[in-house]
Specification:
about 280 residues; alpha+beta; 2 domains; D-amino Acid Aminotransferase, Chain A, domain 2
Length: about 280
């Protein structure tokens, strides 16, 4: 099998040779940001959106981005060409750098690495169960490497035979550790939380795809509104749209994936195909 090739601080190298020293405050303090996209026929899907979010996360943590956007595109292009598979994930990681006092930000380390992924669904996936938990991430608008609570709650997720955990606070529900949530209320309005969330790229594409299908609102959504929804679904880079039919053992809607999830999955898939066909480096 051909080797996976990564890029670190200006050098292309085999993935297994990528290393971060113990003095990096990304490791010592969790001070780092990342992003993740996938390729389709060697095209990085919605590349501009992911690069913009990565830059915004870096700026929020006052980390200097070592490369311009065009330079990043050039690196991505070569990495995509070097990989043995046409469908892969790409992870971008920018750390706080090597710090003698383990606290002061220094010159960041930038790593772009390939990630093998499972085949992306071509039809709407089966419905799942989720649980809820009271928690709000620090700096939720930043895609940081801070996933402590999400990882800690995996035991509860598995005990409940659930797919994932949805966070909520006094403002209402917010997000999953790695994805966004949408509901269709009983009035036929598509809604997604507006605050305390990382605004996902798939979330953005779904909002755009729904524009002439049904009304769309970004607003606070209470737990009661979640429980009484006609439909609920998850959006993510690798799964696109996943319908939810059980929340904390409460049946949602008719107890099966709803028509809006089916329609938006098809529209999202069509938007991706259009992007791939029209993409230019």
């Amino acid at each position: 099998m051909d080797k996976l090739i990564a890029w670190m601080n200006g050098v292309y190298l085999p993935l297994e040779e990528v290393k971060i020293g113990y003095q990096d405050i990304g490791l010592l303090r969790g001070y780092a940001v990342f992003d993740f996209l996938r390729t389709n026929q060697r095209v990085p899907v919605f590349l501009e959106d992911y690069l913009q979010r990565f830059q915004e996360s870096a700026a929020a943590l006052r980390l200097d981005m070592p490369l311009s956007e065009q330079a990043m595109r050039n690196v991505v292009r070569k990495l995509v060409e070097l990989q043995p598979q046409a469908e892969m994930g790409l992870r971008f990681l920018l750390t706080g750098g090597y710090s003698e006092d383990a606290y002061t930000v220094q010159e960041p380390n930038l790593i772009i690495s390939p990630v093998p992924i499972k085949p992306v669904p071509t039809v709407l996936p089966d419905a799942v169960k989720i649980i809820t938990y009271p928690y709000e991430r620090q700096l939720p608008q930043v895609k940081s490497i801070h996933y402590t609570m999400g990882i800690l709650l995996q035991q509860e997720v598995k005990a409940a035979n659930a797919f994932d955990v949805l966070y909520y606070s006094e403002q209402g529900v917010s997000e999953f550790p790695r994805s966004n949530v949408f509901i269709v209320n009983q009035q036929g309005v598509l809604q997604t939380p507006a605050n305390a969330v990382l605004k996902g790229v798939t979330r953005k594409q779904v909002i755009q795809a729904a524009a002439n299908l049904l009304p769309v609102e970004e607003k606070n959504i209470s737990l009661d509104e979640l429980y009484s929804a006609a439909e609920i679904f998850i959006t993510s880079t690798t799964k696109k749209i996943i319908p939810v039919t059980l929340v904390d053992d409460r049946v949602i809607g008719a107890g099966k994936p709803g028509p809006v999830a089916f329609q938006l999955f098809d529209r999202l898939s069509a938007a991706e195909e259009d992007y791939v066909q029209q993409f230019q480096w």
